[in-house]
Amino acid sequence: QITLKESGPTLVKPTQTLTLTCTLSGLSLSTSGVGVAWIRQPPGKALEWLALIYWDDDKRYSPSLRSRLTITKDTSRNQVVLTMTNMDPVDTATYYCARKRLGYASDIWGQGTMVTVSS
Amino acid sequence: EIVLTQSPGTLSLSPGERATLSCRATQSVSSNYLAWYQQKPGQAPRLLIYGASNRATGIPDRFSGSGSGTDFTLTISRLEPEDFAMYYCQQYGSSPPWTFGQGTKVEIK
Fold first, then answer.
1. Which residues contact B70 (CB under 8 A, 6 or more apart)?
2. If we measure between CA atoms, which residue out of B7, B31, B1 comes closest to residue B89?
3. Does the first or last residue of chain B, that is N or C, have fewer Cβ atoms within 10 Å of its Cβ?
4. pLDDT tens digits for range A5-34
5. Contact B44 A52 (CB under 8 A)
6. Is A77 helix (H, G, I), strand (E, B) or coil?
7. Which residues 46-105 of A are in CB contact (within 8 Å) with B?
8. Which residues of B touch A64 (CB under 8 A)?
9. A33 to chain B, minimum CA–CA distance in Å?
10. Across A51-59, average pLDDT
11. Do A109 and B56 touch (CB under 8 A)?
12. Which pLDDT value is given to residue A103?
């Protein structure tokens, strides 16, 4: 069974850097074609795609957030890490990670982790 | 960036009725890489359809997707009580960002 689980702080202060970890189970980041994407959803609003990293370390970012995002992977730990700098209250959202294979949509999602940005 | 517009914003129907949801893109979606997701309150999205018309694993056949280019449709042939939820389309072709629509809420009439 393949699962993904997000972890990280539930509360960050404005201007701080957010670091989120997605831990994969039953799925290897070294498998050809495998990727992990990050998506967020502010309360009561639509989904927003943020970033993605593939097995070969190819990285893609949302152009509007590119300057604030960094996505990396640790294949030995089977984890993907997303960092977002200069957090603002508008970044308050549930953050999801999801598996995405080449040519396929994001088919397996984590449960999400809620992050609140407040002083 | 491809912008996806979903309509209607809310669809009020009764169980057993047919639901037709629309997703329109501002430019052609590469390889018809268009997906539909269902989301219930407090839950992560669930993939229903990928490649515009392919049902994901375990998805009942009352869900079907169609369309190509810039116009796509999700049809639920006969609504079951568990189908009342939020639905999002997403394009994942060509270059990122792989944008989502703003969603259609299917509610009980």
1. B24, B25, B26, B27, B28, B29
2. B7
3. C
4. 999 999 999 999 999 999 999 999 999 999
5. no
6. coil
7. 46-49, 52, 60-64, 96, 98, 100, 103-105
8. 97
9. 15
10. 96
11. no
12. 86
Residue A112 makes CB contacts below 8 A (sequence gap 6+) with: A6, A41, A94, A95, A96, B44
Smallest Cβ distance to B45: which of A47, A103, A104? Answer: A47
| Cβ-Cβ contacts under 8 Å, A103 against chain B | 31, 33
Q: What pLDDT is attached to residue B77?
A: 97
Specify the pLDDT at position B94. Answer: 73
Residue that is written with structure tokens 């949302």 in the block: A62
| Class of residue B54 by CB neighbours under 10 A (exposed 0-12, middle 13-18, buried 19+) | middle
Identity of the residue numbered B17: E
Asked if the model's pLDDT at residue B8 lies above 90, the reply is yes
Name the residue among A97, A98, A114 with its Cα closest to residue A8: A114
